[in-house]
Amino acid sequence: MNKINLKNIIKKFSEIGSKDKLKSILTPHRDWKIIVVTFFLLFVVLSVANMYFFTQINDEKIFFKAEEGEIEDFEVLDVSGLKETIEFFENKESKFNTLVEEKFEIVDPSL
Hints:
This protein is an all-alpha fold.
């Protein structure tokens, strides 16, 4: 039974692009090496993040649901400020519409 020698595989994988010392020749081996290493690193990072968030949600540390006695009074929306803002934009819209409807006299400078 053949044993898989991990050191030989890593050595072969790292020697693929080492023939060109100046890295002036574009080879598909180098491109595939970059793609595989990037994918592997991204996979590891996302797996660790997934495990972290799973444990945090499972322990109810993230998205914690407050009990009934812990709910505090929230600030009520400032309705007067909201009405002033709406009025401001309505006035702005009406001024714009009057400017669009007005016809300006364009003087021809050649006359």
